[in-house]
Amino acid sequence: MPHAVEAAFREELRRAGLPGHGPLPRLLALLRGASETHLTLPEVADIAAETGLAVTLTDLTRHLESLADHGLIGRLPTTTTDLVFDTVAEPHSHLVYEEAGQVIDLHVSADTLLAMVRKALAERPDGVEITVRYRRNAAGPDGF
Fold it and tell me: What is d(CA 135, CA 133) in angstroms, rounded to the nearest whole number?
């Protein structure tokens, strides 16, 4: 990893309140550079192993949870029991296709999102489930 890139990840970790040394900068760089944005723990472990990042599964779980707790990655609600981490930290929506097991990032305006929900409900009124998750760090004055 080039020095400037490594320094940027270290600074991002420090701003989030995490140590900018050890395996965290490299892990964050691997997550941000991954071709997929939604990764299970075994998938992250494979990426780490392929790139030579020596970390136990226990430590990897702890590091991922820490990155998620500090808002550098997200946790994705899924239709399975697998933990899925979202490498895109910025708020965005997801479209989940249960049958295909596919999750799609939606970087759209609120108006577009509402139009998509209306269309989905019109097309499959009994086949759409809506989940609204309030992010911990985005609470308004009422806590919501």
Answer: 6
